[in-house]
Amino acid sequence: MKLTLLSTAACMALMGGVMTQAQAQNYPTKTITMVVPFAAGGPTDTVARLVAQSMGTKLKQTVLIENVGGAGGTIGAARVAKSAPDGYTLFLHHIGQSTAPGLYRKLSYNAIDSFEPIGLVTDVPMTIVARKDFPAKDMKEFLAYVKANKSKVTYANAGIGSASHLCGMLFMTAIGTDLTTVPYKGTGPAMNDLLGGQVDFMCDQTTNTTSQIKGGKIKAYAVTTKTRLASMPDLPTLNESGLPGFEVAVWHGLYAPKGTPKPIVDALADALQVALKDPTVKQRFADLGTEPVADSRARPEALRAHLKAEIDRWGPIITKAGAYAD
Question: Which residue among 222, 241, 260 closes a domain?
């Protein structure tokens, strides 16, 4: 009887393995959904749409974007973590995937163990921008004005755990001034209110600010990278504008639910690499002030290592700042 039960179990396991292998070989056979944990129109949404279209061409299937915003990206993350590990639900998130464990006391998922990493996508600089009629003409005047009017100045962000929240938190720590924060469910809505003059300033990714800056619709004061951007060479760095050592770059990574078969993960990583070499994607990224990562970083093992290192990096910073959310 025991032998029969063992044989049955072995056969079922073998059949399951064969089915998984067959599914991986035929993958994909239907539309793929890429979840973006922020509102449409924001910087992460922009990156996702560019990559999804090109990946879809390589995979010969449509890759649809689904925006699941809220709670700094954790609602979208939880949604994907609970999805079937069949390669038909993907997740594109930014640096917030590494800050969530420190920011949120209770998460319904594990930022590392609940996902299969596919690869890094891009590193995006951030910019300090303000409404068009903000009185300061340069970063020196901006810092002086903000400190002198801290009770009136409003700072917009995309919610707890977002890149704009993290940048703002570090900015306020760097200048030793607490400002009124206005959270949104994404940087798209936040940018709309900045354009409308309802809020004073924000720190946002170049993928969301470049066209607005070049169009003269908002004021730009500085970039958060070590060196100036080739796309906006006249924009100084924060390091040269009175905040030495201030540096924030927003990396984006692509994930699948934990348990997604390795052949499918590898197929997705290959499609990602092809997408990041697509001339159209590269040009659009350049227009937005960023560029695709190198092939060696657009792989599962590279994202896994980077995510762990970033969690280790930001955890102590968040704890020191006392920035928590329930």
Answer: 241
Domains contained in the chain, number: 2
Burial class of residue 270, CB neighbours in 10 A (0-12, 13-18, 19+): middle
Tokens matching residue 120: 């890094």
Mind spelling out the 3-state secondary structure of 222-279?
EECCCCCECCECCCCECHHHCCCCCCCEEEEEEEEECCCCHHHHHHHHHHHHHHHHCH
CA distance 40 to 232: 25
Rounded Cα–Cα distance for residues 64 and 306 (Å): 26
Report the distance separating Cα 317 and Cα 326, nearest Å.
Answer: 18
Gyration radius (Cα) of the chain, Å: 21
Q: How far apart are CA 255 and CA 87, in angstroms?
A: 10
| Phi, psi dihedrals of residue 203, rounded to the nearest 5° | -115, 110
What is the per-residue pLDDT for 8?
Answer: 59
Mean pLDDT of 75-93: 98
In a domain, 6, yes or no: no
CB 200 within 8 A of CB 134: yes
Query: Residue 207: what pLDDT?
Result: 86
In contact, 224 and 167? CB cutoff 8 Å: yes
Residue 16 lies in a domain: no
Tell if the pTM clears 0.85, that is, is over it.
Answer: no
Give the residue with greater pLDDT, 136 vs 69. Answer: 136
Domain C-terminal end among 241, 267, 288: 241
Q: What residue type is 270 in one-letter code?
A: D
Quick check: 222 and 106 in contact, CB under 8 A?
A: no
Distance from C-alpha of 86 to C-alpha of 259, rounded to nearest angstrom: 8
Rounded Cα gap, residues 209 and 46, in angstroms:
11
What one-character DSSP code corresponds to residue 104?
Answer: B
